[in-house]
Amino acid sequence: MERYRSPRWLPGGHLQTIWAALYARRHHGPRPRFRRERADTPDGDFVDFDWLESPAPATAPLLVLFHGLEGSSASQYALAFADRARALGWRCVVPHFRGCSGELNRAPRAYHSGDFEEIGWMLGRVRSAHAGPIVAVGVSLGGNALLRWAEEAGDTAAQTVRAVAAVCSPIDLAAGGHAIGRGFSRQVYTRMFLRSMKPKALAKLAQHPGLFSREKLLAARDLYDFDNVFTAPLHGFRDTDDYWARASAKPYLARIRIPALVLNALNDPFVPATSLPQPHEVGARVTLWQPAHGGHVGFPGGRWPGHVMTLPEQVTRWLAQAL
């Protein structure tokens, strides 16, 4: 993967990110279809799990895919990983973070980048429902949260999953948050996220009056401001700085005790290359892939010697070594 080079006609991290999101091929055969199951949470809320419709046996390996900020099982990367799981004869499930399955959740909370307790509860539900081995992939926000779970779980993580992979994850949330709040990224990506996040937050306010300041939320112009008004206080953090510091996976990578892949392109517009960890900063079970190209969950049309490979193929090949 570290030899990956993007096509010459698609230079730069922004183009690789945007092209992959809008135009990249999601699946080789028919569009993956999912069967939804709803599970009640301990705090009286619900989480929706979308299970890939597949003839794979109950004992086949299961790929758990945690989506990114405002993602879902319909995201291009979720469909691509589900298609790859289908081709391998694996099962696949996409747990949705609260509010991301198409229906507003009930509790006075949503989800966040360091939500390792929610990840642990979701994986526990999946573990109880599946007889075979499990591997997990987290994309962007979902990858940081997945790594935080593996860090907190330590030696006990192996009781649930064989290996984890974080794809294009902002494991230094402060660096990523500031990067997406500047220049082109602020004008394109920040606006895109806020167009989805603000209406959900306002719906949450209507559901729980007085939860936060409507005026301050409407005035938020970047993720730092939004997290200060909504994400941080709703999830037990003092403010955005406290949230970004405590939720970042990078400082705790040495705690991980199961095989873990951390994949970040050096030209990712969401994740500055200078914020990425070096080999001496991670534990012995952590593998770092840091190709020069790829953008944010992009990696379009990359060529390796003799054949073309996709991001899901590379990541699942690595995960298969742990099965």
Record the SSE blueprint.
Elements: H1 13-22, E1 34-40, E2 46-52, E3 62-66, H2 76-88, E4 91-95, H3 116-129, E5 134-139, H4 141-153, E6 163-167, H5 173-180, H6 183-207, H7 214-219, H8 223-234, H9 240-247, E7 260-263, E8 286-289, E9 303-304, E10 307-308, H10 311-320
Parallel strand pairs: 3-4, 3-5, 5-6, 6-7, 7-8
Antiparallel strand pairs: 1-2, 2-4, 9-10
Please, could you describe this protein's structure?
With 323 residues, the protein is of the alpha/beta class. It contains ten helices and ten strands. It has an eight-stranded mixed β-sheet with strand order 1-2-4-3-5-6-7-8, with helices on both faces. A two-stranded antiparallel ribbon has the order 9-10. The model is unreliable at 302-309 (pLDDT under 50).
What is the helix tally?
A: 10
Q: Topology as H/E string?
A: HEEEHEHEHEHHHHHEEEEH
Shape: globular
Count all strands and give the number.
10
Summarize the structure.
With 323 residues, the protein is an alpha/beta fold. 37% of the residues lie in helices and 15% in strands. The radius of gyration is 19 Å and the shape is globular.
What are the key terms here?
323 residues, alpha/beta, 8-stranded mixed β-sheet, two-stranded antiparallel sheet, 10 strands, 15% strand
